[in-house]
Amino acid sequence: MNKPSSKTQQSQEKELALARQKIEKLEREAQIEAALERVRSKAMSMHNSDDISDATAIVFRELERLGIVTLRCGVGILDETKHMDVWTATASADEDDIRIIGRVDMTIHPMLEGAFDAWKTQQSFYTRDLVGKDVKNYFAALDAAPDYPNIVPDKIPKRQSLATFSFREGLLFFFSDDPITEEAIRIFKRFASVFALTYRRYLDLKQAEERAHEAQIEAALERVRARAMAMHTSDELTRVAEVVFEQFTRLEIPSLRRIVITVIDQDEETFSIWASSTGDQPGVHGFTVPMLENDKIREFSER
C-alpha cells in the first residue's frame, strides 16, 4: 500500500487544523449567544425596578464566564450635564450585587472627557491607555471628586487601560492592566446592546410604578375629599382626621410615626388639634387648647 506523500499529509493536517478552528469558533459563538440570551431572559423577567440589581449583575457574571478579565467594571448612566452615575459590580461569597457608588464629573480628566464625547456621538467603542503620571493624575482627580468614593489603590499601578461601550443612556466600562483584545471588543459591543434592553426595561417598570403610585395618591385624596364632604357637624372632623391617617398609612410613607392636624380659631383664640397615636390607644384623638400668650405661638397662628 502506498503511503501518502509528505505534501498530501501536510494538506490533510492543514485541513484538520482549519476544521478544528472552525469548530472552536462555532463553540465560542454558541457560548457568547447563550450568555447573551441569559441576560435577555433576566431582563424580560424583571417584575419591578428593584430587579435591576440582579439583571445587571448577570451581565458581569456572564462576561466573567466568557473569560473577560477586568480589574473593575461597571455601568455609567450619563446626562447632558456631563455627569455620570456609576453603577459598579461587587461580589460576595453568595451573590453578585450592583449598586450606585457615586456621581462623577466627566470633565475632571481628559480620559473621562473622551469617554463622554464618545457616548455623546454614540461611538460604539472608546479606549484609552494611562501610563505613569497619567495614572496618578487620574486617581488624584477621582480622589478629589466630592460625590465619588475614594477608590485610590494603596499602590498606584504603572499602567491602566479603559474601554467603554456606548448605548443610548450610558455606557459599559472596564479597566484592565493591558489594552483590550479584539475578541473582547466584539463581545463587549454585543453585551452593551443587550444591556440597553435591560436598562430600558428598568425605566419602563420605574415609570409604571410611578404612575401606579400617583394613582394611589389620587385615590387616597379622593377618599379624604369624600369623607370631608359627607360631614354634617364639626364633631365629625375627628373622623376626617382618621381617614387622613388611614390614607397616609396605606401609602406606606417611610418613617411616618404620627400625623397632626391643627385648626386655629382666631376669634376664640384656640388651637384644635387632632393627632394620630399608636400603642395602647391607637387611633386619632382630638382636643382643644387655648392660644397661649406666647409670641412664638401667636406668630405661628398668624401665618
Describe this structure in words.
It is built from seven helices and nine strands, in the order ααβββαβαββααβββα. It has 303 residues and is an alpha+beta fold. The relative contact order is 0.09. The model has no long low-confidence stretch (mean pLDDT 81).
Shape: elongated
Structural class: alpha+beta
Residue share in helix: 40-55%
Strand order of the largest sheet: 3-2-1-6-5-4
Question: Which stretches are low in confidence, meaning pLDDT under 50 for 5 or more residues running?
Answer: none
Order of helices and strands: HHEEEHEHEEHHEEEH
Q: Provide mean pLDDT, rounded.
A: 81
Compute the number of strand runs. Answer: 9
Give the N-terminus to C-terminus distance in angstroms: 113 Å
Radius of gyration: 31 Å
Give me the number of helical elements: 7
Strand residue content: 15-25%
Main sheet attributes: strand count, strand direction, barrel closure: 6 strands, antiparallel
Short description:
The chain has 303 residues and is of the alpha+beta class. The protein contains 7 helices and 9 strands, in the order H-H-E-E-E-H-E-H-E-E-H-H-E-E-E-H.
Features of the shown structure:
9 strands, alpha+beta, three-stranded antiparallel beta sheet, six-stranded antiparallel beta sheet, 7 helices, elongated, 303 residues
List the helices and strands and how they pair.
Blueprint (H helix, E strand, L loop, with lengths): L5 H39 L7 H14 L6 E7 L4 E9 L4 E10 L4 H11 L5 E6 L1 H12 L14 E9 L2 E7 L5 H48 L7 H14 L9 E6 L4 E8 L5 E8 L4 H7 L2
Antiparallel strand pairs: 1-2, 1-6, 2-3, 4-5, 5-6, 7-8, 8-9
